[in-house]
Design brief:
There is one protein chain. By secondary structure, this protein is mainly alpha-helical. The chain contains 7 helices and 6 strands, in the order αββααααααββββ. It has one domain. It has a two-stranded antiparallel sheet with strand order 1-2. The chain has a two-stranded antiparallel sheet with strand order 3-6. The longest helix is centred in the N-terminal third of the chain and has 19 residues.
């Protein structure tokens, strides 16, 4: 999903991406064996259990991460200037295209994030905004604080115990 964080998507684009992802996953994972010499294709809910979140959710998550990165760059940064720029003059006839910023703020509103400009400036708060779902393909990681308990032995050397991350 190279540069997916800069994409704007219509509902049709989102559905086409989901269809393509399911087609590719069915090819990769193969059919399910039902009985001796009898197979069937995987159903959508089985694919969802295998991958966790779909491609559209991952793209939305990437867009939100990118928004925080750009917002923290500062007002004088070129990318922030381009993001907030409003062109002057007449626009084309018909319905205007959806803007990237509007889509990302809509994604944040769907997730219940309020006052995103303030939260984007603090990385810790911003991380909570886009960590709404963890895909099931990745293991859950419990990280314990690094604790060192100095113990001196007869040779005056310092020994320490270190707790590590446990993957379950």
């Amino acid at each position: 999903m190279y540069s997916a964080e800069t994409m704007t998507m219509t509902q049709r684009d989102e559905e086409e991406l989901r269809i393509l992802e399911r087609k590719i996953l069915r090819t990769i994972l193969g059919p399910v064996k039902v009985a001796h010499d009898e197979y069937r294709i995987r159903m959508n809910h089985e694919l969802k259990q295998e991958i966790g979140e779909d491609i559209v959710q991952r793209i939305k998550k990437q867009r939100i991460k990118w928004l925080g990165h750009v917002w923290r760059a500062g007002e004088e940064a070129h990318i922030r200037t381009l993001m907030t720029w409003r062109p002057s003059g007449l626009r084309r006839r018909g319905r205007p295209r959806s803007k990237w910023m509007e889509e990302v703020t809509r994604d944040l509103e769907e997730k219940g994030v309020r006052n995103w400009q303030r939260k984007a400036m603090d990385r810790r708060l911003w991380r909570k905004c886009w960590l709404w779902q963890t895909p099931s393909v990745f293991p859950s990681i419990l990280v314990y604080k690094e604790m060192r308990e100095p113990q001196q032995n007869r040779n005056k050397r310092v020994k320490g115990t270190l707790q590590r991350a446990i993957i379950i």
